[in-house]
Amino acid sequence: MGIWKRVSEKTKQTLGVKANTVDWKPTSNARNLAMIDEARKFSKQIKLLHRELREMEARISDNLGVLKAVLNSPLPRVYEMSDKGPVPVDKEAAIVGGGVSFETLTATAGDLKVKLQQEVLHPLDQWQAAYRMIKQRNLKCEDLRLELDAKRREAAAMAVTLERQKTKAQAADEKQAAAAEAANRAANGSGSPPGNKFEDAEFRLQKEEDKVARLLQRYRDVEGEVYSALLTLINDTQVLKQYAATALVVYQHAFAQAYTAFDGSPQLPQSSCAHPSGSTPVKSPSSLTHGRTSQGAASASPATPDPAANSSPPADSTPPASAPPPPAWYTEARQQATTMKYDSDDEN
């Protein structure tokens, strides 16, 4: 179906134009649109966090660079007067950071960048990439929905027209005498019963209804995929708190590592959020989505409502126990995630 028909159908739905049948309703994609709208708002918060964490890492690295420069600067010396004028007591100027391991300070900045990217920023990039892919898939879902509804309108119009023609023909036939009816059939050159003259129209209507059924199945499949992906995306948001805490642990470890440059044996109090083994406790968001049973996340995509009946999901429906596996394109989008762009358009 061409873009013009989709635009026309979207305009009709915006204006509230119904089909020829009284009970006709547009096919609903409301649940996905509502979830995407909230995900869009959450995406802005993800960007704020991502930007702030990266800028903090850059500031810490710059501060370590300043610290190195200061520690490497010479200490002022004591001078005494001699026949030649003031001369330093110490021949060689000592530096502020005598005995400090500058290599450790340099390595700290590099390790901080790598760890923060791997353990915090990259998972946030993956979430953003999955969100963008869901938006693209939902645009295709919306196109398919409009195509389906346009075809439903055509089929409904054909059905109403055919029914009206049959009614008129039946009323006319009842008023004619048997001889007039026979003459009518002879004039048409058919001699078949009156109902057969609608055979072509009924065949065309059946073809349209078959197309509607195929489009409906395609739409249900695509809409269900988008819904399943959104469930996974929403479940992944539950671990944002862990990533925020992990970022603090990564910063803490960076400062502890920098402290070892001074004497090699830091005596710092253990943070309650630090992992006993010294590694940062991080799990990927997708690996935690199965543990949301107590949160009441949905386990399988409920059947897409029949547009011929009520296309909206039941108001009192409760989400199933656990989220279904996301579609393959969702996982692929996460794997191909790139660095987040803060000025990208996530408004649509």
From TrEMBL:
Residues 167-198, 267-348 are annotated as: Disordered. It comes from the Eukaryota. InterPro entries: AH/BAR_dom_sf. Residues 267-296 have a biased composition (Polar residues). Residues 177-188, 297-320 have a biased composition (Low complexity). Residues 198-225 form a coiled coil. Residues 167-176 have a biased composition (Basic and acidic residues). Keywords: Coiled coil. This is BAR domain-containing protein. It comes from Astrephomene gubernaculifera.
